């Protein structure tokens, strides 16, 4: 069990805060109405993300086991269909698939700590920065080395257990992440591009808001909180009984949003101060940002700090991806956690080799339509399994679990609070995730 409620807050926030907060949220905010998008996003977090996260935590705390065995227990106790156990299995499988390629991309961030610290990007041109990244991706051995290093770090942490592993890592990584982000935002404030970067993210441009904007906000609200993969349910099993689920989840959502906004305030002023265009995805993280830091005073120092921050965000997410499967295997086979962690990590590492090769030797090999191996695994796990899992979690907590169980876990003592829970968790949240699911499948 977590030693305190705040350790759970940091752990769940660490699971939620990942690469998507840093390279995706700031860009989609600027491209979809700025401040208008932020308001829509916050509404989606409150109406969709928070209820599903509360559902995951309450189910996890009620079952006190791995997601698979928790769902088995819930089904037996409340005489529900055995098909609901699929929620646990999907979470475990999704976490396994995502971890396999997440450690590949996170390995890039580790590599760029070294690249920035060595001064590789000092006074380079845009084409040169792009060539450095392309050369790196073209080398399967380099990608494999950093993928292996990051996976080893993940295995080491999760093998040590909840208190000595997860808590010990999170107790250091999360506060340092917030400090590093604060330092970078403070640095960005001193640049000439801060006003332009601030306007890019927060000026209200309602004319840019469309139905697709709402769908993007829904998807970001769902995916950013690490919902649907069983990680929050697994972490919820370790939550002390006296901790308020609603209050705790609200703080986690707030921290996750603040990190995403802070990342934008740290990134875009530096980009605009150097006259660069804000790119999306890996291009922003591994080409534009290093190029910007390479042009400015103390850029080597703050560029290195930036990629340390990215790596911290990645490792806290990676350890949460492995927890559902580890907890299940330890329970099911009464095995030592360290042995299970190594076996699970090796299997995930081996699958990740396919993602490594997707950027070089297998770049022209297609598996699902026109998708590479990396894109195929990403699509199946992120666009199919997670939304489906999140929707089923909301429906189970909203309609299958008895009111007495939900009321006891969430502290719902009045009739109107039960009705509100039914509306949010049983109706609005599933419909919102269904929209994300359909949008993902239809492109």
Could you characterize what this model shows?
This protein has about 450 residues and is mainly α. Helices cover about 80% and strands about 0% of the residues. The chain has a single domain, classed as Up-down Bundle (Amino acid/polyamine transporter I). Helix 11 (about 210-225) crosses helix 19 (about 415-440). The longest helix is centred in the C-terminal third of the chain and has 35 residues, at about 300-335. It starts with a helix and ends with a helix. The relative contact order is 0.20.
Radius of gyration: 21 Å
Share in β-strands = under 5%
N to C succession of SSEs: HHHHHHHHHHHHHHHHHHH
The rough form would be described as globular
Number of helices: 19
Instruction: Give the integer mean of the pLDDT values.
Output: 89
CATH C-level: Mainly Alpha
DSSP strand tally: 0
CATH topology: Amino acid/polyamine transporter I
> Which structural class do you get from the secondary structure elements?
mainly alpha
